[in-house]
Amino acid sequence: MLIPILSVRDVTEAIGFYTGVLDFRVAFAWPEQRSIYAGLVRGEDELHLALAAEHGRHGHGSAVVLCDDVDALFASFKAKGLALPSRAGSPVHEAPLDQSWGTREVYIDDPSGNTLVFQQRRQL
C-alpha cells in the first residue's frame, strides 16, 4: 500500500475540507489539539496530512483517487459545498471530463492548493 502525504498550511482546515466535502474520515490526528499530522481514510484509500514546516511550502502535492462513478461522486461533493471553479481556466477543475488517455476525471484542489484527481477508468 502506498500512502501519499500532502503538505498543508493548516491541518485543522484541511481535515475540515477532506471530511466535510470529500467523504474522508479521521483515522488519527497528532496531537489531538492543534494537530500537525493526521491520517484520513475513505473506503480503502488512505491519505496523510502534514503541517508545512515553512510558510509557502505547502500545496505542491497531488494524488489520484480511483472511483467507479466520477460524475455521481462530483455531484455529492458539490452538494456538500465544494466551491467551483477552484482553478479558473481549467475545465477539469469545473466538472468531470473525458481525457484522451482513456479516463474520466475531475481535479479538486484542497484549501492548501494540493490537487486530488478523482479518476474513473474506462472498462476495456
TrEMBL record:
Q: What sections of the sequence does the record tag as coiled-coil?
A: none
Gene3D superfamilies tied to this protein:
2,3-Dihydroxybiphenyl 1,2-Dioxygenase, domain 1 (3.10.180.10)
Task: Please provide the record's keywords in A-Z order.
Answer: Antibiotic resistance
Mind telling me which InterPro entries this protein's record contains?
Answer: Bleomycin-R (IPR000335), Glyas_Bleomycin-R_OHBP_Dase (IPR029068), Glyas_Fos-R_dOase_dom (IPR004360), VOC_core (IPR037523)
CDD domains the UniProt entry points to? BLMA_like (cd08349)
One short Pfam name that applies is: Glyoxalase
Give start and end of each VOC domain: 1-121
Family affiliation: Belongs to the bleomycin resistance protein family.
**UniProt protein name:** Bleomycin resistance protein
Instruction: Give the originating organism.
Output: Dyella acidiphila
Starting at the broadest rank, the lineage of the source organism is: Bacteria, Pseudomonadati, Pseudomonadota, Gammaproteobacteria, Lysobacterales
